[in-house]
Amino acid sequence: MLAVRLALCVHGARAAARTSTRASGLGHARSLSTDTDFSGVKERTLVAVKPDGVQRRLIGDVIKRFEQRGFRLVGLKMLQASDKLLAQHYVSLQKKPFYSSLLYYMTSGPVVAMVWEGHNVVRSSRILVGDTDPAEAAPGTIRGDFSVHISR
């Protein structure tokens, strides 16, 4: 097994949209309307701390960096990823030569999945996390500061 590593999975899930005013104190009402006024639009994105990041206790560091950028954590779950979930998540990588080792790694320990919300969070999170290759990731990015190997 290679050295202990951290990797983050950032996906542009522009799933949630506009948050309007509270309705009768029951929480935020969401609309996926196609209005042209996007001033109230808040995106959501998935960020996952993979098994070695959990093992290295880096979850707090990751949360801190997103909060410092003004993003709001709207969901967090620690889970043991199943083969079925990983097959769905990594469907685009199934024909890659590293796919089986990726599945082995991703099932080697718990994963922390987080959903972050904020204006332009998808693009900003990609910048904050940094290049997939740790050798190319800029200092100050999550991968640049914590990652030690491209496969993780």
UniProtKB/TrEMBL annotation:
Pfam families xrefs: NDK
Entries under PROSITE patterns matching the protein: NDPK_LIKE
InterPro entries (alphabetical): NDK-like_dom, NDK-like_dom_sf, Nucleoside_diP_kinase
Top EC group: transferase
EC number(s) reported in the record: 2.7.4.6
Primary location recorded for the protein, binned into one broad class: other
Cofactors required: Mg(2+)
This protein's UniProt keywords: ATP-binding, Cell projection, Kinase, Magnesium, Metal-binding, Nucleotide metabolism, Nucleotide-binding, Transferase
GO MF annotation list: ATP binding; metal ion binding; nucleoside diphosphate kinase activity
Catalytic activity of the protein: a 2'-deoxyribonucleoside 5'-diphosphate + ATP = a 2'-deoxyribonucleoside 5'-triphosphate + ADP; a ribonucleoside 5'-diphosphate + ATP = a ribonucleoside 5'-triphosphate + ADP
Domain of life: Eukaryota
GO biological process assignments: CTP biosynthetic process; GTP biosynthetic process; UTP biosynthetic process
Domain Nucleoside diphosphate kinase-like: 42-152
SUPFAM superfamilies assigned to the protein according to its UniProt record, in alphabetical order: Nucleoside diphosphate kinase, NDK
PANTHER family noted in UniProt: NUCLEOSIDE DIPHOSPHATE KINASE
Family the entry assigns: Belongs to the NDK family.
Protein name per its UniProtKB record: Nucleoside diphosphate kinase, mitochondrial
